[in-house]
Amino acid sequence: MPLIAVLIQMEENGVSVDTKLLAQMSKELDNTLQHLEVNICAISGGVFNLNSPKQLANILFNKLMLPVIKRTKTGPSTDSEVLEELAAQKFEIAEKLLEYRQLTKLKSTYIDVLPTLIHPKTGRIHTSFNQTITATGRLSSSNPNLQNIPARGDWGKRIRGAFVPAKKDWVLLAADYSQIELRILAHLSQDPVLLKAFQEGKDVHQSTADELGISRDAAKTVNFGVIYGISDFGLAKQLKIKRTEAAEYIKKYFEKHAGVKAFMDKTIAEAKEKGFVTTMLGRKRPLPDINSPNYSIKSFAERTAINTPVQGTAADMIKVAMITNNLQLTTNNLKAKMILQVHDELVFECPKDEVENLKQTVEKAMIDALPLSVPIKVDVGVGGSWAEAG
DNA sequence: CCCGTCACG
DNA sequence: ACGTACGTGACGGGC
To answer: pTM above the 0.90 mark?
Structure first.
């Protein structure tokens, strides 16, 4: 499978970033962060290194005597989940710390680093797409990782806004699979209710919400949970509800979706028998722990058995699309360049006058990649930056 | 070099 | 009674 040729091209193509925008963001954050730091130190009654979880824990839980929410191996945790809880309990410092953490993350990992990685010869940033790292068949990206560029919130959008076409009269085009993993679950399980929902073009999260009598947001969490190998404990934690209530939702979900339940039981049984699971295109993942006497280890393997065929088939699918699409670019003599893959999304840089052509080509390649029993939906966006195209 | 943390799908 | 959502990579702190 000649995906490697496509990956080499993408690595060589690289991406272009607007350094002026990034420099402006950096300056703005310097200001905001300085104020936050002064503010936080004032509340805590002393100067300390805000970037040290150890020093922070000491301030929060020894000096200020805030309640310990959860522990890590080494001491009380100060992660965002803990800070959210403390903020909900009206501890002002927690709110400030959340903002400080978020902004330092974006500054130190993306805003200040990306400009330094621009190759002097090409003027672009070149990642490595790794084909042999993940257990499911997904790609990974490193040096720098361009598969975890911020997407959420105002600052996420501003950072994606700095990913731009290099030339005048060129644009970025982003094509995303819509709910690909749930569609694959529908195909693999052949669950009649899920199949029907997709075939009728329903909003599946809303369908689940109606079935379970819960909000669309909660239903979305349930649907994700199903793909991850749901447990009442995990769902309860995620939805901040009682474990018994979560168990009821799961029971109800599996009553409505007996096909999904049967698929999961069958997948786990097969994994126990053969010692591995497979994706649609035959990628194997060994699961040596699936018969472990240790409940925790065995459960982990069982969740993996459920998740891998779904996540791995989605990876198979976009890889096929990348290969056929790249062939199409050549045959159609397009100047468009594939520059990024982010698991269920392909990003291209292309001349404005090729947009309509490319749209058709990409959409078709992605839809036709694998024959599924449900329609495949691809959202395509175009714009002057990744923020506008995505 | 490990840990805690957090960015993405 | 037990302990848990799936898959990654990078940063700063601190040993």
So the answer is: yes
